[in-house]
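Example 3.
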Amino acid sequence: MKISNLISIIALAFSVVMLSCSDKQNDSAKKDVAKPATEHHGQASVQDGVSAANVLQVAMSLDDFKTLVVAVQAAGVEDALVNAGPLTVFAPVNSAFDKLPEGTVETLLKPENKAKLAYILVNHVAPSNYPIKQLNKEAEKGRKLYMASGKYLVVENKEDGVYVGGTKILKSVKVSNGWIHVIGDILVPSED
Amino acid sequence: MKSIFKSALLAIVAVSFLTSCNNSSKKSGALTSNAAERVYVAPGEHDEFYAFVSGGFSGQLSVYGLPSGRLFKVIPVFSVDAEKAYGFNEETKPMLNTSFGFVPWDDSHHPDISQTAGELDGRWVFINGNNTPRIAKIDLTTFETTEIIEIPNSAGNHSSSYVTENTEYVVAGTRFAVPVPQRDMPISEYKGNFKGALTFLKVDPEDGKMNISFQILMPGFDYDKAHPGRGDSHGWFFFTTYNSEEANSLLEVNASQNDKDFIAAVNWKVIEEYVNNGGGTKMPANYAHNVYDENTHSATSTMMKEVLTINPSDVPGAIYFLPTPKSPHGCDVSPTGEYIVGSGKLSADVTVHSFTKMIKAIKEKKFDGDAYGIPILNYEAILAGSVKSGGLGPLHTEFDGKGNAYTTFFISSEVVKWKLGTWEVIDRKPTYYSVGHLMIPGGNSRKPEGKYLLAMNKITKDRYLPTGPEVTQSAQLYDITGEKMELLLDFPTIGEPHYAAGISADIIKKNSKKLYKLEENKHPYVAKSEAEAKVVRKGNEVHISMTMIRSHFAPDNIEGIKVGDKVFFHVTNLEQDYDVPHGVSMIGANTSELLIMPGQTETFIWEPKQVGVWPFYCTDFCSALHQEMQGYVRVSAKGSKVPITFTLDGDAVDAE
């Protein structure tokens, strides 16, 4: 027998014994110890089956917001949309994204543009509770909406409805952590 | 030759590694073992068991996770709790009403979880108030106290609040005998005149509502601890007694004169039948029955005026005395119901009676006289054995469901593991220090889960960072899966961890309520939307029905309040989202904050004493704009003409 063969046999035997030995410890540990914290889920993964639906859950349940949801996921801002808030989200429907110059959405969805995408998305979120009547009032009093992007949006009462940042609110939905107002355009943050 | 050489080599190698492996697993002690891993519950993971640990003189019940020892909640039961407004808000004040008026404190002792067919069902936990005798029920969907019933003719409600194996009854036995009915008489005439009431509360199988079914007026001994029979002994209840001497002073000497006191064995099925056939004597009484309604979010207190009493000599065959040495304290029944363990607290031994022998002795009339007409069974005829432990001061025993029993010893500060039937001691481990009760999840049932043992200590001394003369009491967790017990963890407790009840988390957690449905709210002053918010004056009372939602009150500006008014803030949390409570408090309010769960309405009273504009605010960090959740009340002088107005953002409160 060659020396090298002998070494490999010893090594094999060693590893088998070690394996069975460590398995034994793992078994006893497994029984009593919860799994180590490997995967961290954010608040967005919390499902309780009783609470009224929050912004994200409502958006995800409606086909009108497929593109928005894809964008939210690409930007990694799901957890912010389930937060205690309160939040008022101006949610663009799928067709709003089509109005952007060709290729814009594809570019924004690229991983390297994550921060830019997130910035555009949070320009649709006001960290406050604005039901439609409150928006009417903001318009009357000339009070602007402070958006999570740091920008301000103008609210206007027009004959055919309430406009935010120049686009009309099409529909409003009460959600557990605030309000969703459906819009038909993307609210691109102003340059200034 | 080569192959022989090869296998021999392999064998040697294998043996040497196996040996080293064994060596490492033989190490003992928390530092060298993997004790830390075994109590580690990773962030985001849940504990395997709930432990409901009594708060003793705090009057509350705390909820811990095992094996981690993490504290989740302190449930207010018998004491006011400013954190949760329990006993401070108008809705829960009736919970603490008694025949003595509002009593804001008690001494909570023995939690016990409801059972079905001898196994824990996790629907309710019952606990006794020792000082002003009461039994409370906590609903394990909301983890709130939903019922408290006062026990008349009782004092020092200690041999309580244990449940029978289908939760037919919760018992409440008096520790201090008293004149029944109470009357003005010389204390020295105690003997033969005072009574010890053993009270049986019927539990409604549907909603858990309690009612006093009957009270057995026993001789004036001290009824210390109790446990129900189970299996074959289901239908019986066992109570330890001390002070069979009936001393009324310096009991530490005078109640230790008799070599043996008794365990009272009560056949409640016989008494139940007697009662169902019209037996017993109705006696005038005065005790409070307080019930919290989850839909009105309010409690009511009803004074009950009558109680059914039973004279033991009127029901022959229902009650027997089992002689038990040295002022027995703990009274514990094995999972099969065969063994009744009495721990003489001044003894070195643990006495174990046999249920089978007891029944035989009753049949064969092996009596050694009687006490006030109750037959005393012959000690030798009923004795199963005794555990020669070598410890001192046995108090309580629990079981692992594998034929072993575990007894705490106060004086020698240890837990002793012994074998049922052979009575041999298997292991002993020190506790730190002076252990009282111990708990194995499911311990008071047919099916204990013999994985962990929680020892609850009375004395702490040097175990933790010192905090002045008063230091926390403690609980210690042992792994009891092996032949020998292993101390894993040591954690601080609320008040005195008098006793505890443990249960698999899976049984309870799926039923845990997440919020109250707003549409089911039947509070008389609920405002289910901002449009329903209002302020109404009735003489000098002003009722504000206010709402709260992230992140404002409606209304948040109120005028027209006057010095001398009594202002009721009825505040409804409009949220329908798990874990979004709001709080509220008013400057100068002579009460606590309110902590209001989603869908709930609570009320506090504010009596403004000074003219001015006074703020209120949300006291629970609810949202990103929590700091903005605030409002003002304008208080004018008595006789002022400022009208009542209530607004939000300059307008009358209106709908969304």
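Chain B is about 10% helix and 45% strand. The radius of gyration of chain B is 29 Å.
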